[in-house]
Specification:
The complex is a heterodimer of chains A (65) and B (284). Chain A is mostly beta strands. Chain A has strands at 33-35, 42-47, 52-55. A 3-stranded antiparallel β-sheet of chain A has the order 1-2-3, with no helix packed on it. In chain A, a hairpin with a 4-residue loop joins strand 2 (42-47) and strand 3. The model of chain A is unreliable at 5-10 (pLDDT under 50). Helix content of chain B is 34%, strand content 25%. Chain B has a 5-stranded antiparallel β-sheet. A 4-stranded parallel β-sheet of chain B has the order 2-1-3-4, with helices on both faces. A 4-stranded antiparallel β-sheet of chain B has the order 5-8-6-7, with helices on both faces. In chain B, helix 3 (80-87) packs across helix 4. The radius of gyration of chain B is 19 Å and the shape is globular. The chains are: A mainly beta (65), B alpha+beta (284). The A-B interface holds A 1-6, 29-33, 44-45, 56, 59-65 and B 5, 7-13, 16, 30-33, 35-38, 46-47, 49, 57-60, 87, 132, 134-135, 137, 203, 234, 251-255.
Chain lengths: 65, 284
């Protein structure tokens, strides 16, 4: 199976797109969800090397258990 | 070394814990984003993994991916059949009824007036929920004809054909909580979800607490899992104030981040053990 490596419009690498807090980039995975230490926003890793982050997407219609 | 494809929508706490648990068992884990998959409709294999652990948050993607990966010879946990049944609450009810598993009475209806007439015959209150909904969204308790008219007008007046199915269930007067039993091949533990609100999803603020699963609850949960062919599922139980016990819903992509501390059930390890041992091989 192919492993996806999405490319999207993004913000300054290694920073929270909402508050510019630096986010540690080691051992991250594309698709990983993390919480910003600066503003507690839920972020999603959308690119690696450099680390690129976006605000995690809104809940979609068919998500969840 | 066992090879596992872990299919995900987002790498949440659950997926991180599962990844770690699998790696502790010397598994080679390939993280596979569901959004990037393109699968030809044929029997050509796409992976040499022993098992695909389906952790897609999207019911739609999980159902199709599992279907086509199975076509290509993969062992998918949970299976496409289980995902299809659990992801659609009306089909879950049908599968439970087929096996005689106790649940709240329920009916499906496809027309606003017919549905309203049936509710009036049964009497209020009742619960209606979208067949494909999740996390307690758009679940409504109908206490009166006027409430039913409003909700049903929206149910049948908006959305597409898939939305124009009303699943109506008996309202069960719970004693302030519902119960969740995890079945990983067998019942392995559970939690009680306490809330002042009649909706008791932890995603909606219910507080998880420890719950020692009695044998009778474990057997009921295992029967429910068997009815949908589930290898690793979370079975939601409703207990009435009179002591009756019903299966309410079955979840095929078990979420546990909000409750793992409260339950003390090592779900990531139990799931990883199940994957590694190759247990099950599909119940249904």
């Amino acid at each position: 199976m192919q492993v996806q490596n999405p490319t999207t419009e993004s913000v300054t690498p290694n920073q929270c797109p909402l508050c510019a807090q630096q986010v540690p980039g080691a051992n991250r995975m594309v698709g990983e969800v993390l919480s910003c230490d600066g503003c507690s926003a839920e972020l999603e890793v959308v690119g690696l090397n450099p680390l690129r982050l976006e605000e995690a997407p809104e809940v979609e219609e068919d998500w969840g258990e | 070394m066992r090879k596992v494809d872990l299919v995900y929508t987002r790498v949440r706490t659950e997926e991180k814990l599962l990844l770690e648990a699998l790696r502790r068992r010397d598994c080679a884990v390939n993280m596979v984003a569901d959004s990037g998959q393109v699968l030809s409709v044929d029997r050509q294999r796409v992976s040499d993994a022993d098992t695909v652990l389906m952790r897609s948050m999207s019911f739609t993607r999980a159902r199709y991916l599992a279907t086509f990966l199975e076509l290509k010879g993969a062992r998918v946990l949970n299976s496409a059949r289980t995902i299809s049944l659990c992801g659609d609450k009306a089909l879950t009810c049908a599968a439970l009824a087929a096996k005689g598993v106790p649940m709240p009475w329920a009916f499906v209806a496809f027309d606003e007036d017919a549905c309203l007439d049936a509710i009036e015959t049964k009497g209020y209150p009742v619960v209606t929920k979208p067949v494909l909904g999740s996390w307690g969204r758009m679940v409504a308790r109908l206490d009166s004809r006027s409430a039913a008219e409003g909700v049903l007008a929206m149910r049948f007046g908006t959305g597409g054909a898939q939305d124009h199915v009303a699943l109506v269930q008996e309202y069960v007067d719970k004693p302030g909580y519902d119960l969740r039993v995890y079945v990983i091949g067998r019942a392995v533990g559970g939690l009680r979800r306490r809330s002042e609100h009649w909706v008791t999803n932890t995603a909606r603020g219910a507080v998880p607490e420890r719950y020692e699963v009695p044998v009778v609850h474990a057997k009921l949960a295992e029967a429910a899992a068997e009815a949908v062919g589930g290898d690793m599922v979370a079975v939601d139980l409703l207990e009435t104030r009179g002591g009756d016990l019903y299966v309410n819903e079955i979840n095929h992509c078990v979420e546990f981040a909000r409750s793992i501390e409260a339950t003390g059930v090592p779900l990531p390890d139990l799931i990883a053990d199940y994957v590694v041992t190759g247990a099950g091989g599909g119940r249904g």
